[in-house]
Amino acid sequence: MNYAKKFLYQSNYWYNDGLKKAQIRDMSGAIVSLRRSLQYNRENIAARNLLGLVYYGIGEVAEALVEWIISKNFRPRDNIANEYIKNVQASANELEVINQAVKKYNQCIGYCQQNSEDLAVIQLKQVISAHPTFLKAYQLLALLYLHSEQYSRAKQILKTARKLDTENPMTLRYLHELTRQRTRKGKRPEKKRREDAVEYSLGNETIIQPRHSALREAAGHLAVANLFIGAAIGAAIIWFLVAPAVNQSRSERLNNQMREYSEQITSLEAQISAQTRTLDNYRSQGEDAEAQVQQAQNTVDGYENLMSVSDQYDNGGYTYVTMADSLLGISRDSLGDNGKALYDELTEDIYPNACYDYFEQGTEALSAENYEDAIDAFDKVIRMDQNYNDGEAVFNLAQAYSGNGDNENASKYYQMIIENFADSDYVQEAQENYDAIAGESGGDGSSDGQDGGSDSGNTEDGEE
C-alpha cells in the first residue's frame, strides 16, 4: 500500500511539474515530465489529457488524439478528453488542412534528400501558413535558411518557433548556430596602412602628405610629349589592328550567341526532364501519403482494440479465445512504447490459455477430418506460440493441410518441423511425409500422399 501511495505521489508530482512548464510554453520539458507522470500511473487522466493538449499545441494532432483516445478508454464518462476529440472531429475541414500540411512536410523532407531545397522552402511556407502551430515545419525551414546563409529570415522563423516551445532543444541549437555564424561573418579584415603617405609633426598637429618620387615628377614633364606620341600610335592601331579586330569581334559575337542559344535549349531540356521527375515523385509520394494515412488509422484502431481487450480482461466476463482473437488482429509494431508494454502484459497471460483451448479444438477437428476448422485452430496456436507442445501444433497443422489437399502448405510446415524441431517425436514422420509429397508427380500420387497424411494425423491423435 505504501508503494502504491508513493507511485501516486510521484505521478502527481511530475504532473504538476509538467503543468508549470506548459503554462510557460516549455512544451518539450512538459512532455518529458508528463511522460514520467504516466510511467508511475498510466491511468492519471489529468496528465494524459494535458499531454494531448501539449502535443496539440506544437502541431502534433495525431499524437494528441492517441493520448485522448487512451484517456477515453480509461474513463469513458465525465472525461474532458471526449470534448477534445469531438472538437477535432467537428472541424473536418481544419483536420483535412492539417493532414495535407503534414503530407507536404513529409514531401519537403524528400526534397531536402534530393537537394531540391528551393522547392522545400516554397512548400514549407505553405505548410506553416496552413498549420501555424506545426513546430517541426518551422525548424526545418529555419535550417534551410541557415544552410543558404539567409540569417535574417532564419532568425525570424526561429523566434516564432520559440514562441511555440520556449525550451525546445532543437530550436535553441539552431539559435546558437545562427549566432555563431553571424558572429563569424561579421568580422572585417583590418584596413591596410597606406604606404604611399608621409607623416610628420608640426607643433601639436600631425600632417599627412602623399609620398613624392622622382619618377612621378619626370612623368609630369613628359605628359605633353606623350600626347603626341599616343596620337600617332593610336592612328596606327586603328589602321592596322582595329578594323580586322572589328570583323573578328562580330564573328565571335555571332558564335557566342549560337552557344548561348544551344545552352538555353539544353537548359530547357533539363528543366523538362526535372519537371517530369518531379511529377513522378508527386505521384509516388501521393501513394506513400495514402499509405501513411492508412497506417495512422490502423494505429488508432489498434489502440482502441487494445483498450477493449484490457477492459474485457479486467471484467473477467470474456473467454481467453475471444480476447486472443482480438489481440491477434492488432499489429504490435503500430503501437507506442506504452501500448507495446500493455500488449505484452495481456498476451503473456491470455495466449497460453487460448493456445490450450484452440489446440483442443484443432485436435478434435483433425480427428473428425474437419480439416478447415483444424487449420484455423492450429494456425492461431502457432501464431501465438510457434513452439507449443514442442512442435506438435506445427505438425498437426501440416497434417490438416495435407488432409485438405494443400500439399504446398503441408510441405512448408513439415519442413519447419524438420528444421526447427529436430529432437521432437514428430521429425521422422514429418520427414517421411515431406519426401512423399516431394516425390509425387501426378493426380494419383497426390491423392495417395494426402490419404497417407490424413492417416498419420489420426494415428498421432490416437497416440495422444
UniProtKB/TrEMBL annotation:
Ranges where the record places region Disordered: 431-464
TPR repeats: 135-168, 355-388
Coiled-coil segments: 251-306
Extent of Gly residues compositional bias: 440-455
Pfam families cross-referenced by the UniProt entry: TPR_16 (PF13432), TPR_8 (PF13181)
Transmembrane domains' residue ranges: 218-242
UniProt keywords, alphabetically: Coiled coil, Membrane, TPR repeat, Transmembrane, Transmembrane helix
Alphabetical list of InterPro entries matching this protein: TPR-like_helical_dom_sf, TPR_rpt
Gene3D superfamilies with a match to the protein in the record: Tetratricopeptide repeat domain
Protein name: Tetratricopeptide repeat protein
Lineage: Bacteria, Bacillati, Bacillota, Clostridia, Lachnospirales
